[in-house]
Design goal:
It is a single chain. A hairpin with a 5-residue loop joins strand 24 and strand 25. The chain has two helices and 32 strands. It has one domain: YVTN repeat-like/Quinoprotein amine dehydrogenase (Methylamine Dehydrogenase, Chain H, 7 Propeller), CATH 2.130.10.10. It is mainly beta. The radius of gyration is 19 Å and the shape is globular.
Length: 383
């Protein structure tokens, strides 16, 4: 009940923000904010899956936490998941939720003092599908995207204050076997949920009811603006703007789409969308906390494109920052620190986490830290 009351309050706040009076209401995000002291990566290790944990220092550099990596109790696949959001820190900062794609499960780990993780009692549950690849969480409402043939879907759970995941009855939305969902996410305020279908180049969009159930938008799924919609993110400062990278248009033809999202989930392109990336395979996206800049990781080009975001959602390409040692590095998932001064990029093919300083829309690489042996990392989360 507490979770649904919080969701209702956040819905009111989102509505006020949409009409320009957000400053009159205290931010729930601010009430729950904390320094970005810890960074977590889903190692997706074959057999027993683990989560690598790091402590973040004042200069943004990372060192491994004592006891890292931490067992999830499930199994990874030992190969890339081709998804965004395979690990999340809950909004209250108490738990890490990670997919165990090799065993069709989801794990919940408690964040202990000093950042160490421990599996909560009954913390490993069925994903209610095949090969979970992405997770979204909002005030105790959790949705997972399952991508495997014979069990591809979006399905919901509730998360108790003790970290217990329970299936949300009648919440499963089946998907075709060829959909390959790559990301599921909930907007700030918890009023809309979006999922991308990478293989069939479509975008699912829903409104989220007070009880956590989904109502498909009219005409959903929507055709993507280019092949291979992949990474996606709502603008932190405007929950009615959605940005989606398009990864499969060919060499030099990457783009990022921008959409307005209606309350019922209907999508309409922002003028000028899709916006050229001038690189290949923009797969993962991250938006600065002030909503002013977007970073798109171009996996095949081995660099990160930087955009300025106008108030109406239009994008202006500022340039691209190369990721070092790019012969086969495979830069993928990015995630900003809570203070926004650091960007961490999963360099999956060399099992490392790249560290970048952030200054507005500029990035400066500082180095990298190694991930555990055998990691096939998927997703980055911060606290």
């Amino acid at each position: 009940m507490q979770n649904f009351l919080m969701r209702s309050l956040r819905t009111v706040i989102a509505a006020l923000a949409a009409i320009g009076v957000a400053g009159t209401v205290p931010s729930l995000a601010a009430a729950h904010s904390s320094p970005a002291d810890y960074v977590y990566v889903n190692d997706n290790t074959i057999g027993t899956n683990t989560v690598a944990g790091f402590v973040r220092h004042e200069d943004g550099q990372l060192t491994a936490l004592p006891g890292s990596p931490f067992d999830t109790g499930g199994e990874g696949t030992g190969s890339g998941l081709a998804s965004q959001g395979a690990i999340q820190v809950t909004g209250d900062g108490h738990f890490v939720i990670a997919v165990d794609a090799g065993s069709n499960q989801i794990s919940v780990l408690r964040i202990k003092r000093h950042g160490a993780l421990e599996l909560v009692p009954h913390g490993v549950v069925s994903s209610r599908g095949v090969q979970p690849v992405s997770i979204a969480e909002d005030d105790g409402l959790v949705y997972v995207a399952n991508a495997g043939a014979g069990g591809s879907n979006y399905t919901g759970f509730t998360l108790s204050p003790s970290g217990r995941l329970r299936p949300l009855a009648d919440s499963t939305v089946p998907l075709p076997d060829d959909a390959q969902p790559g990301d599921v996410l909930i907007n700030p305020g918890g009023t809309n949920l979006v999922g991308v279908r990478v293989n069939s180049s479509q975008i699912d969009s829903f409104s989220v009811g007070p009880d956590g159930h989904l109502a498909a938008a009219p005409d959903s799924p929507f055709a993507a603006q280019a092949a291979g919609p992949f990474g996606s993110e709502f603008r932190p400062t405007n929950p009615s703007q959605l940005f989606v990278s398009n990864a499969h248009a060919g060499d030099g033809n990457g783009t990022v789409s921008a959409f307005n999202v209606e309350s019922d989930g209907a999508l309409s392109p922002i003028a000028g969308s899709p916006f050229p990336d001038d690189q290949t395979a923009p797969c993962w996206v991250e938006i600065t906390h002030d909503g002013d800049f977007l970073f798109a990781v171009n996996t095949r080009s081995g660099n990160i494109s930087r955009y300025a975001i106008a108030p109406d959602g239009a994008l202006t390409l500022l340039g691209s920052t190369q990721v070092s040692n790019q012969s086969g590095v495979g830069a993928v998932d990015p995630r900003l620190s809570t203070d926004g001064r650091s960007l961490y990029v999963n360099e999956s093919r060399i099992a490392a986490l790249g560290e970048f300083d952030v200054d507005g829309g500029q990035l400066t690489e500082q180095g990298s830290v190694s991930l555990p042996a055998g990691a096939a990392p998927a997703g980055v989360a911060v606290k």
